[in-house]
């Protein structure tokens, strides 16, 4: 590629909303441009990187025996009604209507569509196991789109879905996918960890996430310093044994609270005066979720305070997900122990500090009384977790626990029969009997990987691409091409030779000052840079610098070809 004929949109300014370095560098290097909240255009430069990731993902999926297909992004409501997820999926589901007033969603994921395909296509156990995948745009109306393409609303995902007659077969494909994922992230040149993950609302037997280790990661991981043990903190059980977390208070009791929706209702139902209610968060989810917080005095401890951010009183949140985001908690990591689905929102606190609360549950018309915050609350702040967890024996008995932050770039799941059952996706077994199929699903955040890689690999002046992801492996920079036909011709010939050798090369023939040219190449992270100048030509050398080198060195053409393999 000749840069004079390309569009390179490097800029100096970063927008104020670019909080993390990958977002800043993607804007500065001109890889992405924001269209609207959570919606990004991939520039020609950005797309080159995205396609590199896609290519590796596709190659490894094919190698692992998965078969590529492509499903529609827009999906009919009726199908989502069949699994109950039209209601349950919550605010992330973007619902749309066509001109005939028929309802659709823009697919956030494709279990429904692929299972519909499978129930029509697959008739016999002999067709199993089979693993379909696609690389396709998803839309999730994230409550807080941020960090650029890291948590976008529209993003590119590789999603695969496998179908099986037996659990054994499912477990086998799961293992194959696990290994394929490990190969993908290794080939991409990323430092990652596979961690046990919460199966949460989806249910199922086994689940692992692939996490790129980075300080800016939104996920918190516990891992052993001596074994392969690693788990997402969302999977609270992972650390519970290490923490020695107490059982729920004996006093904790579930109470039915029909139609308790407002502060007045709370007062009426529990006899709690309004001044003791710290904050009221009315949650009107699909299932009419209700949660309320204390209002009043301010000696709440920090753990609790961290869950009560700057929400206006009487905020109305649309879904469980919004509550979780609003209170800064994650599913499975909140609420009293033993009640993993409980929102830790407290409506009353007795004179005894931090004991005997009333908590709003995230189930409709339910509260818990007698919660003891100290005993029952899950620990959610990083600092708390660090204090409690680090140094404790790992649950597998080998080594001690450490914690790290990670970015979830992949997720593998044994779904079991959940979707196939709901959609009645069956095959005939060898006895001619109908059997509901078992499923696995396997996602990779293709576009997120690009941002995650930058988080892991950058310095003060720009991106440091792993070779496998670089937009070009080498850059040939020409000094003063206009003034010297010889320099221009030498650069041209070097560029042609590199290209002929299959080395993806960009020729910087824009005629910029050397400083500006080098700054651009460093910013966009090209792994190898050679400079063709009059001085070098006279000496018969090229000035070479790897992106990770501190200084450049003079080398011959042949030495360059050797370096670039
Ligand atoms: P997260 O916990 O970050 O919200 P998720 O668990 O909701 O992710 P999955 O349903 O497991 O995501 O989707 C598969 C993959 O898609 C994730 O591992 C992640 O890499 C990617 N992904 C999910 N949401 C987004 C998003 N909003 N923007 C970019 N990539 C995403
Ligand atoms: Mg999510
Ligand atoms: Mg997740
Ligand atoms: Mg996930």
From TrEMBL:
UniProt xrefs under NCBIfam families: PRK09194.1, proS_fam_II
Cell location: Cytoplasm
Gene Ontology CC: cytosol
Classification via InterPro entries: aa-tRNA-synt_IIb (IPR002314), aa-tRNA-synth_II (IPR006195), aa-tRNA-synth_II/BPL/LPL (IPR045864), Anticodon-bd (IPR004154), Anticodon-bd_dom_sf (IPR036621), Pro-tRNA-ligase_IIa (IPR002316), Pro-tRNA-synth_IIa_bac-type (IPR004500), Pro-tRNA-Synthase_IIa_type1 (IPR023717)
Catalytic activity: tRNA(Pro) + L-proline + ATP = L-prolyl-tRNA(Pro) + AMP + diphosphate
Family to which the UniProt record says this protein belongs: Belongs to the class-II aminoacyl-tRNA synthetase family. ProS type 1 subfamily.
Name of the gene this protein is made from: proS
This protein's domain notes: Consists of three domains: the N-terminal catalytic domain, the editing domain and the C-terminal anticodon-binding domain.
Chief location of this protein within or outside the cell: cytoplasm
Protein's UniProt name: Proline--tRNA ligase
Assembly mode: Homodimer.
Domain Aminoacyl-transfer RNA synthetases class-II family profile: 38-466
Domain of life: Bacteria
Enzyme class: ligase
Role noted for this protein: Catalyzes the attachment of proline to tRNA(Pro) in a two-step reaction: proline is first activated by ATP to form Pro-AMP and then transferred to the acceptor end of tRNA(Pro). As ProRS can inadvertently accommodate and process non-cognate amino acids such as alanine and cysteine, to avoid such errors it has two additional distinct editing activities against alanine. One activity is designated as 'pretransfer' editing and involves the tRNA(Pro)-independent hydrolysis of activated Ala-AMP.
Gene Ontology BP, a term: prolyl-tRNA aminoacylation
Gene Ontology MF terms in the entry: aminoacyl-tRNA deacylase activity; ATP binding; proline-tRNA ligase activity
Enzyme Commission designation: 6.1.1.15
